[in-house]
Specification:
Two copies of one chain form a homodimer. Chain A is an alpha+beta fold. Chain A has one domain: Alpha-Beta Plaits (2-Layer Sandwich). In chain A, 35% of the residues lie in helices and 29% in strands. Chain A is built from six helices and eight strands, in the order βαββαβααβαββαβ. Chain A has helices at 16-25, 49-64, 92-97, 102-114, 137-149, 168-181, and strands spanning 3-11, 35-38, 43-46, 70-78, 122-132, 154-158, 161-167, 188-197. In chain A, strands 2-3-1-4-8-5-7-6 form an eight-stranded antiparallel β-sheet. In chain A, β2 and β3 (43-46) form a beta hairpin. Chain A starts with a strand and ends in a 6-residue tail after the last strand. The mean pLDDT of chain A is 94. Chains A and B meet through β1, β4, β5, α5 and β8 of A and β1, β4, β5, α5 and β8 of B.
Chain lengths: 203, 203
Amino acid sequence: MFIGAQVSLYPMTSDFVDVILTGLKGLDPYRNDLRIETDDMSTLMVGAPGPLLDAIRDLFAAAARRPEHVTMHVTLSRGCPGEPDDPSCRCETLTRAQHQPLDQRQAEARAAVADAPVTGVGIDVQFSLYVLGQDRHMDEIYGCIDFLKASGTFLRSKNFCTRLRGDAGAVFETVRQAFLRFGPAEGHVTIDLTASANSPSLR
Amino acid sequence: MFIGAQVSLYPMTSDFVDVILTGLKGLDPYRNDLRIETDDMSTLMVGAPGPLLDAIRDLFAAAARRPEHVTMHVTLSRGCPGEPDDPSCRCETLTRAQHQPLDQRQAEARAAVADAPVTGVGIDVQFSLYVLGQDRHMDEIYGCIDFLKASGTFLRSKNFCTRLRGDAGAVFETVRQAFLRFGPAEGHVTIDLTASANSPSLR
């Protein structure tokens, strides 16, 4: 199994380099657990979903604690058949989920969101979950949407994606649960996610 | 068939509202052909792939003609089983592609990129193509990657995505061809795309 993300932080300010450096400090606690490589368009992070989603959350929360409008784009992927197996990506939740019916996975996902840490940073997210290589992929999508609606972070459905709103802790836990508990445990699942904070449109 | 995109423009400047308004002027010629709705996170565009990708290209090219660093995120989708049929999304290329073998689709895609208009705006793109609801989805992905490598806009492969570089005309034509000619014509295909221009990392 290979799990990782391509992550880009977009501060809407002429001081964007400074905001990006503030965000990168949020990654420091995770540098031993993740492989992190940056180029001119995005930062690759490879590792288990525990540190991976925590790192993405803390990167964005650190940037969003500043007053400037900031957004982030994340391409998350697990189980892509074109990527090599990587032992550092092993995930107990995924292994267990393989043998659980949909309603049990939904219940555990809701419990995980309820237990999420509170960061004190309110954010907006919209994301799409893709279950690849399976004929009945929409069953898992609809099961995931039911979970999202009961997660406490659901804002509304949009064409092609779902809007979440809330504390960065609960919102990124919701995303992690969607990523891990829906679609086959050994399958290829991806998420296309956009986060936003301090938008002047909401003032 | 329902075809559309959620599009967000991210100018890395404190004048971001002004850059976004410049970009939006690029959409004006397409307002009769597309349904366009904006909220605080993204702009929904629904319509046939001809005007849809032209509009996305011209939105980004208009913003990128200014000197500021600007990025864009696009979630493209066709054939999502959860969306209603929309006659305005009808696409001759898709209908024809249904009966064509892979090598013919690759050849027509290369020809379309060679014929793309030149905008004079150099851009970088990275994107992922997802073919949903099909057991052998990686065959179409590898077929698409072969086309990308021969497209003239290919820069390199990355984990989870492919980098393109070139004139906005050729780059967005490459994306449109990937979107239309790979994966089943009646199937559910999505693209997760990030574009960048005027990045200080490349200076």
